[in-house]
Design goal:
With about 375 residues, this protein is α+β, with helices and mostly antiparallel strands. The chain contains eleven helices and 16 strands. α6 packs across α9.
């Protein structure tokens, strides 16, 4: 089947799509409701999806509520990201035994997850995040089957349109679905993005999309792009932050910041890790483990003599400036995809778009005074 073909899968045949994926040996990971949030976990059937649920998001605020329809993907994004599969939160790098002389014996490298994954429900911002993280980690997620979902609504903290990362996925997927619910009809417009995606549809009942259905999908995309909960002016943002390294706004945000690291944990591109060596009580077995860490912890910048960034001011400035400025110099792209998770899941509702706007406003006033 040709790439970029547009087909229709009706709601009643969605399980056939999941069966086609599973029959090819993939473990399906996608959104489901658990513990009052929409999280990513293994799926067996369409009934495992957040059927009829949506999310309400704002700074420091996340709640699920019922929709008035049975949409499968009628929400924005939750606290989980695909980073957990690209860079697991905990992993063993190697393990060994220690002989009587203190030497390492029976050395064994850590085992990677051998399962083949299919990511169901990835949004455009998340596809960009996966690409950014692959670049940072010098790895590839090409072996992952990606069934993207075009956003049907923007979250209260979303600003992907400002970052040119959404809300419509244009590449990086095998199939991309736009959910359509109109006049009692529930279906998915499916765009084929690869030969693998086309092969899947050979086992799924589908038909060619009509002009009306393609137009309806386009309206969904336009409505979502026009309803972003946040905006971020990226024009000259890197230089703006470099110019304002000593801006008093950093002190103001530090008075609120708990340095808890929530923003880095939910961010789909943050990649800070730490390494720990662990032994048993007898000292005969040792493992080296890598775990997620955060630039918001004091110890993360610790060197001989103390921490480089000992204050909340310096740690928040490091995070935001790296994300929006130095990342560009280091990796050639922004480290932010506009998903808004850092705003939603900050306990005190710190909003990096608000912080950037405040610095820009003062910077502009200073330029006017200089003239």
């Amino acid at each position: 089947m040709d790439a970029k073909a547009e087909l229709i899968i009706v709601r009643e045949d969605f399980d056939a799509l999941l069966h086609a994926i599973a029959s090819r040996g993939y473990t399906i990971i996608g959104p489901t409701v658990r513990d009052g949030a929409i999280v990513y976990d293994e799926l067996q059937a369409a009934s495992d999806l957040p059927v009829g649920w949506t999310d309400e998001q704002g700074p420091g605020h996340y709640r699920l509520r019922r929709r008035d329809d049975e949409a499968l993907f009628g929400f924005a994004v939750g606290p989980h990201s695909w980073k957990a599969h690209q860079l697991p939160a905990e992993r063993t790098l190697w393990r060994a035994r220690v002989d009587a002389d203190g030497g390492l014996t029976e050395f064994e490298a850590g085992h990677s997850d051998r399962r083949r994954y299919a990511f169901l429900g990835a949004r455009s911002c998340e596809l960009h995040a996966m690409g950014i993280l692959d670049h940072v980690l010098s790895q590839s997620s090409d072996d992952v089957l990606v069934i993207a979902v075009q956003c049907g609504q923007a979250g209260g903290t979303c600003f992907c349109a400002s970052m040119d990362t959404g809300p419509v996925a244009e590449q990086g997927f095998d199939l991309a679905l736009t959910e359509l619910i109109q006049n009692g009809r529930h279906c998915f417009l499916c765009e084929v993005g690869s030969a693998r995606g086309g092969d899947l549809l050979g086992d799924v009942p589908c038909r060619e999309a009509t002009a009306d259905e393609r137009e309806a999908a386009g309206q969904v995309h336009e409505r979502t792009a026009a309803s972003m909960g946040r905006e971020l002016d990226t024009d000259g943002l890197k230089e703006l932050l470099y110019r304002n390294y000593e801006h008093p706004r950093w002190d103001e945000v530090a008075e609120r910041c708990l340095t808890c690291g929530n923003c880095t944990m939910v961010c789909p591109t943050c990649f800070c890790t730490t390494v720990e060596d662990v032994t048993d009580l007898a000292g005969e077995h040792v493992e080296r483990q890598a775990r997620w860490d955060s630039c918001f912890t004091v110890d993360y910048s610790g060197i001989h003599g103390g921490a480089v960034r000992g204050s909340a001011r310096s740690r928040y400035r490091q995070w935001m400036t790296h994300k929006l400025a130095t990342w560009l110099d280091q990796f050639g792209s922004s480290g932010c995809v506009g998903c808004g998770r850092c705003i939603t899941w900050c306990p005190v509702g710190i909003d990096l778009t608000e912080e950037a706007a405040a610095i820009r406003a003062d910077d502009g006033a200073a330029d006017a005074d200089a003239r």
